[in-house]
Design brief:
The protein is built from no helices and 11 strands. The chain has 130 residues and is mostly beta strands. The protein has a single domain, classed as Leucine-rich repeat, LRR (right-handed beta-alpha superhelix). A 5-stranded parallel sheet has the order 3-5-7-9-11, with no helix packed on it. A 4-stranded parallel sheet has the order 1-2-4-6, with no helix packed on it. Strands 8-10 form a two-stranded parallel sheet. Pfam families: LRR_5 (PF13306).
């Protein structure tokens, strides 16, 4: 496992070994920035506020996102991330299909959510009620 430490998501090559990404000072993950990055295990972004359309889509090995300031998950931003088990966030907005086909997702805690658009958790078959 290799730890990548960067200020910008766009500077990181498509990873060929498993990685823990620490993205300092990054406020936004732009559309498709990590599309199909299959070897990200953990993403830590202390200043991240927004994940845009398909920003972290099809990251099959992703197990954790640590982003305490995250406020918005964009359209299909987390789709097909099958290894992620829980999301605990202060997020305010969930766009359509935000977590579609996150089949391993068991638990979600979003105490400040104001907007949940349609089909956010479609095909999240493992999601449990609390």
């Amino acid at each position: 496992i290799k730890v990548e430490d960067s200020d910008k998501a766009i500077n990181i090559p498509n990873l060929c070994e498993y990685h823990i990404l620490v993205l300092k000072n990054l406020k936004q993950i732009e559309a498709q920035a990590f599309f199909e990055y299959k070897n990200i295990l953990i993403l830590k972004a202390p200043d991240l506020e927004q994940i845009d359309k398909e920003g972290i889509h099809q990251c099959f090995s992703l197990t954790h996102i640590i982003a305490p300031k995250l406020q918005s998950f964009g359209y299909t931003s987390m789709g097909l991330n099958r290894s992620i088990r829980s999301i605990v966030s202060n997020v305010i907005t969930l766009q359509e299909w935000a977590f579609i086909h996150c089949t391993g997702l068991l638990y979600v805690q979003m105490n400040q959510v104001e907007v949940i658009n349609c089909n956010c958790f479609r095909c999240c078959y493992s999601l449990q009620s609390g």
